[in-house]
Every structure is written in C-alpha cells, then in structure tokens.
Design goal:
Strand content: 15-25%
Radius of gyration: 33 Å
Helix content: 55-70%
Structural class: alpha+beta
Order of helices and strands: HHEHHEEHEHEHEEEHEHEHHHHH
Mean pLDDT: 79
Number of strands: 10
Low-confidence stretches: none
Number of helices: 14
C-alpha cells in the first residue's frame, strides 16, 4: 500500500512539473476541454433555468394547486378528429355545474368560474385594441393566487348584486391612467362606466396570452352586458397541496355524477391541472437536454484529440527520460501509468477552468435575461467525469507508445 501511495504521489508530482514546465502549451491544449466543459455546464444551467422560468410563469398565470374544467380544454394538442368528437359530445358548462361542484367536491378549498370575451376599450379619445373582459366569481383571486398591487379584488356582494366594478390588468391601467392612482376612477367596459377598485400586478406575456390586457368584472355583471354566459370555465383549488390529485379525482367524480356518466363513459369535459403542465414542461426540457447535451460533448471529444496530439509530442520530447527510467528498472506499466496520470490531470484541470468559465457565463446570462441560470450537480459531474475519461482515453495511445520504447534506442536519441 505504501508503495502504491509513493508511486502515485511521484507520478502526480512529475505530471504537475511537466504541465508547469510548458504553461502556454498546456493552456492552449486545454482550451478545447475548457470550452467543452463550459458548454455542457452552461447548456445544463440554461435548460434548468428555462424549466424554472416556465414553471414560474405557469404559476403566475394559473396559481398553484389549481385545476380548470371546461368544455374543450386539454393539456396537450388535440387532433381534428378528437376536436370534432368532443364538440359533438361535450355539453357547455353552466352555473349549475359550478354550484354542483362547489357543493360536492369535499376536498376542494374553493370552486369558482370565469368567462371571457375579446373587446376594445375606448374612453375620452383613448383607445385600447385587443383587450379581454373577464367575468369572474369573487374567489378567482384566491384560486389563481392573484396579486393586487392597488386596491382590492371583487368581493362576493358585488358579484351577487352585479355591481359595475372592475379590476384592471397592468397594460390597461397604464393606457388609461398613466402615472396616477387608478382606484376610484371609472373605465367603460361594454359601454358601461365601471368603478375601478383594483389593479393586478404586471405578469408579462405567458404562452402568448397577454394577461396584462385583461379587465375583471363580476360574472353577473358580465351577464348583464353580454348575456348570461352558458360556456363557463370552472376553476378549483385543492384543499391540501399534498392531496391535490385527490381533489382532482374528487372534482372529476362529482361532475361525472352530475352529468350521469357511467363507469365506461369518457369524460364529457376537459380537465387541466398545474401539475400536469409542470410534467409536460419537464418532458419538453428533458427532450431538449437529450438532443443538445450530446452535441456539446462533441467539443470535449475534439479537445481530447488535441490532448492526445500533445501527449504524443511529450513522449517524443521525453524519449531520453523514458529510456533512462527504464534503464534504471522502471517497468512498462509504471511508464504507462505515468503518462495516463499526466493526461488525466491535464483534462481535469481543463474541467476545473471550464467550470469557472461556466459559472461566470451563467452569472452574466442571469443578469441580462429573465432566466435564472442554475448550475446543477448532474451536469457538473457529467462534464468533469467525461473530461477525465477523455483525458485517460486520449493518453492511452501515447502512454502505450512510451511504455514500448526500447531503453537503449531511447538513450541513443539524446
């Protein structure tokens, strides 16, 4: 054991001396490894950051522990055949569906509804095109975890009495009430003046849905303006986060019973929950990683080829040294291991510098973009491990060549 420790310590010392004896050459050799490791780690950080960013966006739009039931909703893309089938089969959801679900979903902490209509807003010569008026129940702020920056959200009494009140999205507020407090002002929605009681926090575009162009009014007021809604989106919130799937199944069962569906019948409604969307996001980012990561690993292979070339040059330069060591009794395996240790150490150093470069790039990208780059241990281990393996593989042929040198011929080359 002491012999092995002594041998590897000596091999490591000689490898370090050899690398520092040719600093510039070693650094130029390592550029390929450094770039390769940095590429793998930065790509991994970008994928992880993208996943977190999208999940946060979904959370801002839908809230947590939240599900939605609608006539045609789907977590994935529907084929034309499936769309036509659901259009024929699925009934429109009405207030009676929401009331039934509110009463019979025992594990739901809240059940509400929402209905929307695209519209333009115009007041005092100012026009806003492409807005959306949303009729909502009072508990939609709770269900979707909305943040109200000014004023408050709609309350139950205002829904019961169909009050002319509204909560504005950030873009609507900025268009009609720039640089002033909008609460207490009036805005015409559907031709009727509405009292502004609140302003929602700016959320930015989410999956193409410009949520800051929304205005919220009581769902009963929506019915007064546009007619009683007969195709609601019903929203629910699980009572306990750890039992969210239980709430989903509870809601599904309750609505199936109300629609008098038998056990073999398909659901005649669509149901989407935030956990399913999170799973789809994970699948999407995993697919990206599966495609991109092998491409970035190619740069490590190129770096390994450069390392092999330099190690061959090193063998040629140190022919006399190799011959002298063999003449003094060094065995072939000792010469072989000496060059393998040097090659692996060279690539391991490249890995360390690559990690430092990746950390700097991740910090820079995080400061310039809304995506927070997260360096994960999986990609760090993958990059360092792969670079070390590349170093060992790249050093095999030069080390084998060095170990095969004839000591007499090697000494004669001096």
């Amino acid at each position: 054991m002491r012999y092995l420790h002594s041998f590897y310590a000596e091999a490591f010392r000689i490898a370090v001396q050899s690398i520092f004896a040719h600093k510039l050459r070693a650094f130029l050799t390592l550029i390929g490894i450094i770039i390769g490791v940095a590429s793998v780690v930065v790509v991994g950080a970008a994928i992880s950051g993208l996943n977190t960013y999208v999940v946060e966006k979904v959370g801002k739009m839908l809230g947590s522990n939240h599900f939605m039931i609608a006539r045609m909703v789907s977590a994935g893309q529907m084929s034309e055949e499936e769309l036509e089938k659901r259009n024929r089969r699925n009934p429109k959801l009405e207030f009676a569906d929401m009331e039934w679900l509110r009463e019979h979903c025992k594990t739901c902490s809240a059940v509400g509804a929402q209905v929307g209509r695209g519209t333009n807003f115009e007041q005092d010569g100012v026009r806003f095109l492409g807005g959306i008026a949303l009729g909502v129940t009072a508990n939609m702020a709770e269900i979707e975890d909305k943040t109200i920056t000014e004023g408050r959200f709609i309350d139950p009494k205002e829904v019961e009495s169909a009050k002319l009140v509204t909560v504005l999205g950030a873009d609507i507020k900025d268009k009609f009430f720039p640089d002033v407090d909008a609460v207490g002002k009036t805005l015409k929605v559907g031709g009727l003046p509405m009292l502004v009681i609140g302003v929602e926090e700016r959320r930015g575009p989410i999956f193409g849905d410009l949520v800051d162009k929304h205005v919220y009014i009581p769902i009963t007021t929506f019915g007064r303006i546009y007619g009683r809604p007969r195709d609601l989106a019903i929203h629910g919130k699980g009572g306990v986060p750890g039992q969210f799937q239980l709430s989903i199944e509870d809601a599904r069962t309750a609505l199936r019973n109300y629609h008098q569906l038998s056990g073999s019948d398909e659901d005649d409604f669509g149901l989407v929950n935030t956990e399913e969307l999170g799973g789809q996001i994970d699948q999407f980012t995993s697919a990206i990683a599966l495609v991109v990561t092998p491409i970035t690993l190619i740069s490590l292979i190129v770096g390994g080829i450069v390392v092999m070339n330099i190690m061959l040059v090193s063998v040629t330069e140190r022919t006399f040294e190799i011959g002298l060591r063999k003449a003094l009794g060094a065995q072939r395996k000792q010469i072989l291991l000496q060059f393998l240790v040097e090659s692996a150490l060279l690539c391991a150093l490249g890995g360390v510098f690559g990690l430092l470069l990746a950390a700097g790039l991740a910090q820079l990208i995080s400061s310039l973009t809304p995506i927070t780059m997260t360096i994960t241990i999986v990609y760090v281990v993958l990059a360092i491990g792969f670079s070390s393996v590349i170093g060992i593989v790249a050093g095999v042929y030069p080390a084998f060549k060095a170990s095969r040198l004839d000591p007499i011929a090697a000494l004669a080359r001096n």
